[in-house]
């Protein structure tokens, strides 16, 4: 017979391990499993192996609420974050619930049985598992490939072209001329890291990005740990950093001219006198229309000041045998070109959903509180903040899912379905101007013009709404089983609709 679990989590990355921890802490007796398509835990932090890979948020907010980050470095490298995730899983026994190499391909909901039948492939063999609640923690980008624009002449280049998402372990760039195409978080991480041993590294950008230096060690957090102990100091530091990032974001939205000058003045101070800041570090868009990049201890600016790295702001005309020709006529010689050109987004992990035989097209749905889909029962997914740490939102989504499951238990319900409101106007799920978002948002669920159909981007507000707000808010419809399911020995009665 088909195996059945109460909750099925898809993805064993930062979100999935956190979701499992919240779930088993709230419901020790509830059965669950984690299906992971890859052969390792850690998601992003296991996949990306490029030089210098690190968090672009401080670890007091990127870390889990329930597990203090106690290392001195507030901005941590990839291996440290991966160890943190794995230790969290091992300490709670979550690692025993992960099934690697299980790629979920589709999920079908039956209202008659009030459960999901989830299809997956393992070692090339298709199989199914059923669950009462399906929880996607698979992120929102493709793990098997990154985004690379079509540049003319790429086949003419005699050097090596590398995408950060598939970094060759054996790549030797010592003494080489390197061009990194891009200006986002990956590029500003790669450039100073490679510049330590490369002959020279050029960051080639089509347009500048706002970049802000942050200390790699949070001295306030260090002092608080001495005074308050690790757990209380972590909570205080977390809220301190949330407050600081919120103020910067809100001022950027409301006083963009002031914040543009603020970021420019900080950049001028960290670069040599006379450096052309307005060409290379003064974006055309307003602060926080795209994500602000953090560089620990100004490492990018230090590499530029030392002459080990440089920035070229121009457009690519074509690749040549020896490098790149730019539209300005400039030739950039290169032995290695790194295409840090972004992610290719993937809605809902590429999983095909059906509800009672009806195919669900993500763009035809609306996201309830940024975590459930209109017309789709017993289903949740995690998308983190674009203006703050991913885990801040992931933790709140997990807490809300646990609250929802407890509400179902207490009232004898077997299903919960957000119901669409035709009066709500559809909006893009992510109101964000980054290229990787604009390329892909038409494949994703929509957000709505008002609550609870908006994806919140304010942590303090979401704490109130998701941690303490009413479950029965008039939007979710609840139901009870009325007939006995036949697909698994633990099945109960089928659904009887109850509208809250």
UniProtKB/TrEMBL annotation:
SUPFAM superfamilies for the chain: FAD/NAD(P)-binding domain
Alphabetical list of InterPro entries matching this protein: FAD-binding_MO, FAD/NAD-bd_sf, Flavin_mOase-like
Cofactor(s) recorded in Swiss-Prot or TrEMBL: FAD
Domain of life: Bacteria
Pfam families in UniProt: FMO-like, NAD_binding_8
Keywords: FAD, Flavoprotein, Monooxygenase, Oxidoreductase
The family this protein is said to belong to: Belongs to the FAD-binding monooxygenase family.
Name of protein: NAD(P)/FAD-dependent oxidoreductase
